[in-house]
Amino acid sequence: MKGASVGRGRGTEMPSASSMHFPLALPPGWKSVRFGDLVETKSGNSKLIKGKLSSTSLDGLVPAYSASGQDVWTSDAEWQADGVVLSAVGARCGKTFLARGSWTAIANTHVLIPRSGVDPKWLWYLTNDEAFWIKGGTAQPFVKVKDSKSLRVPLPPIQEQRRIAAVLDEAEALREKRRQTLVRLNSLVQSIFINMFGDPVRNEYDWPTVRLGDVAIIERKAVYPGEVNNQEQYVGLENITSNGAVEGVTTAGKADLKSSKFAFNDDHLLYGKLRPYLTKIAAPKFGGICSTDILPIKPGDSLYRYYLLYCLRTPAMVAQATNNAVGINLPRLSPTVLESFEIPLPPIETQRCFDSVVQEIHQQHKTLKTQAHLLDTLFDSLRQRAFRGEL
């Protein structure tokens, strides 16, 4: 059966299994090919565990890609070619990252090296869509790489691939500019904190100091699987970003929980106790249950919640927490040690002023994030058109 004319004219019929809604008829010069014919694939190095690698770039180290992206460094470069790294396991499986130069992919990833006639940037834009991939699993989703290689995808000539990538690069630059504005807003709050209160460890302003456990409570109220309300919001460590945002939250029923969790409400801070995630501290505006790798902290009457959040997120406090985390594979900070930390206690009115500023900045952040979401939607539409040959 012949398809309708699409893009620049009639062409090859294309029975696509992908979710990208590729056309049945491709523009002249385009081909319908198996995805597996475009790439060489190999699993990431399962011996390299994220928690055991350097989280900072040092001399002699090369970038390493985890399922979260390029966020660690290692000593050996296993690849010396441009390629794409697939997040193969976890909540964001199906996301891909463009890797250039010398690099390594670690556990829970898959490497895609473009074959001759395939542009790496074009390949990244094609695959960087979680819905592109065939997946399995419920509680711990994963990409079925072998099955996904059987998908049929459109392959334009190499020059057209590069033109498509260049157009999408321009659109991506606009999105990146918006993302950087959001990052600067996050940094602004931390800068305001330091300006108002100083470094909480050095305590240059000579505020009175108290044990955290004397002014806040770590509430580990266990909720067992049989007690869980399936409609409650569930927050895992993967749902808290390093800047304190809570994203991708699902319900307890969809999370298919098998073990006990902690209850929390909108009075708590959620503190990720695993290294290297000790900057994952959030102030949720809702209640629910969370992973036991997260400690719900309830500030007392002498603390404003945002003051405590940004105090704990200062580099000095994060370093103190990191140095006190214990364990081999995934070092943890114990609640008892966290309660023993000394923190400054500025006047409540000063904390209130800071809290007010933070809420105003967060409102601006929310507005910008809505605009960023609109840009993402427009980009996705542009990307769909690009791979249908309609640009």
Write structural notes for this entry.
The chain has 391 residues and is an alpha+beta fold. It folds into two domains: 33-154, Adenine-n6-DNA-methyltransferase TaqI, Chain A, domain 2; 182-347, Adenine-n6-DNA-methyltransferase TaqI, Chain A, domain 2 (Alpha-Beta Complex). Helices cover 31% and strands 20% of the residues. The chain has nine helices and 22 strands. It has helices at residues 120-127, 145-148, 158-197, 212-215, 252-255, 305-312, 315-324, 335-340, 348-386; strands spanning 31-34, 39-43, 62-66, 69-74, 83-87, 96-99, 104-105, 109-114, 135-136, 142-143, 152-155, 209-211, 216-218, 222-223, 233-235, 250-251, 261-264, 269-272, 281-282, 288-290, 294-299, 342-344. The strands form seven sheets. A five-stranded mixed sheet has the order 14-17-20-15-16. A four-stranded antiparallel sheet has the order 2-8-5-6, with helices on one face. A hairpin with an 8-residue loop joins strand 5 (83-87) and strand 6 (96-99). Helix 3 (158-197) packs antiparallel against helix 9. The two termini are 25 Å apart. Residues 1-19 have low confidence and may be disordered.
Nutshell version of this structure?
The chain is α+β, with helices and mostly antiparallel strands.
Q: Classify the secondary structure makeup into a structural class.
A: alpha+beta
What amount of the residues lies in strands? 15-25%
The rough form would be described as elongated
* Strand order across the largest sheet: 14-17-20-15-16
- Total strands: the figure is 22
